[in-house]
Model the fold of this input.
Amino acid sequence: MKVALHICCAVCAAGAAERLLEEGFSLEGYFYNPNLYPQEEYLRRLENAQIVAAKLGFSLTEGPRDYQNWHGAVTGLENEPEGGLRCQTCFKFRLERAFLFMQESGCQAFTSTLTMGSNKPALLINRLGHEIGGESYLMRDFKKKAGIQRAGQLAAQWGLYRQHYCGCQYSLNEMEKRIRNKLH
Done:
C-alpha cells in the first residue's frame, strides 16, 4: 500500500519513515509546514527532510508555503500555551492538506510524523487524522517501540539538524523566553 507521509521535520521523518518501510509500505513524503518560522528555519528543515528521503529512498514533495493561510487559522490563539488550542488547530490545518495530497498523489492512506514528537499527543493527532480521512488515515504513535530513540540514532548517524522548538513563531517566542528566564 502506498502511504502519503506528512513530514514535520527530518528527525521525526527518519524514524517514522524507516518504520513504515519496514512494515512493507511504499511512501510518498509530503513536507507541508506553513507554520515554520522564520523562513531560514523552514528551509533548513526542508533540506534535512530531503536528506532523509534520499537516504531511505522515497520521493518528497514540498507543499505550498501558505504561511498567510496558516496564520489566519491560528489568529486569536496567539496567547494559547504550547500544546493548547493553537497547536490543535495547527495539527488539523496540516493534516487536512496531507489528506488532499494523499488523494492527489494516488496514495491509499496517509499518516503524519507529528506523532513522533515527545510533546505531541498521538491520541489527539490520530483522532484529528481519522476525523479528516476516516479509514484512510493510518493511526500510529511513532514514538512507541523505541521510536524516539531510533529517530535520534538516525539523526546522529546522518548529521541531521535537530531543532529546539516546535516551529511556529509562538513556540520560538516561548523558547526564547525560557532561555532568558534561565539566564536571570
Remarks:
- The chain has a mean pLDDT of 95.
- Residues 85-105 form the longest helix (21 residues).
